[in-house]
Write a structure and sequence with these properties.
Elements (H helix, E strand, L loop, with lengths): L3 E6 L3 H9 L4 E10 L7 E8 L6 H10 L16 E4 L2 H14 L10 E4 L2 E4 L7 H4 L4 H17 L7
Parallel strand pairs: 4-5
Antiparallel strand pairs: 1-3, 1-4, 2-3, 2-6
């Protein structure tokens, strides 16, 4: 099966990049800023290239929902939109169905929405692979490590060796 792309946003793209880089079936993660309209500001996010025959879209979305504040309209939402950025109408509809199905696992309503991807701007090379380059930095220890521990525990069959 061929690779697909999908975008995710919701928290710092350093965190999101590190999370998806650990998953089997994910071949590439690009971090930067995503827009859904030409007249709109960009939001931090990642583009994930994955093989659906190795990791289902539902698992990617579930990991995403569990590793950011997917039920919280906090003060940084203007920068960190809780989103799935679909690259096709079919993918967007599938994401919407998955969100509805996964809602039953949350006590509060999910704020995460599915949008059609429009444009992407890559972050500076300095910030690419941030966690891999800086695993001992306080930011990584405080914010990324707890998210990785969660997915290592709950999604162990999908973790790269």
């Amino acid at each position: 099966m061929l690779s697909e792309e999908i975008g995710f946003g919701g928290s710092c793209h350093w965190c999101t990049e590190a999370i998806f880089q650990t998953l089997k079936g994910v071949s590439k993660v690009r971090q930067g800023w995503i827009s859904i309209r030409e007249d709109e500001a960009f939001h931090e996010g990642v583009i994930v290239e994955f093989r659906p025959d190795q990791i289902p879209l539902k698992i990617l979305i579930e990991v995403h929902l569990l590793t950011h504040s997917s039920t919280s309209e906090h003060k940084l939402r203007k920068r960190y939109r809780s989103a799935i950025y679909a690259f096709s109408s079919d993918q967007q509809e599938a994401a919407k169905r998955i969100l509805l199905d996964l809602q039953k696992h949350f006590t509060r309503p999910l704020i995460t929405k599915s949008y059609r991807f429009k444009e992407f701007k890559t972050s500076a090379e300095t910030f690419q692979n941030y966690y891999r380059k800086n695993p001992d930095k306080p930011f990584c220890k405080s914010y990324i490590d707890p998210k990785l521990k969660l997915i290592f525990k709950d999604f162990s069959t999908f973790i790269k060796s």
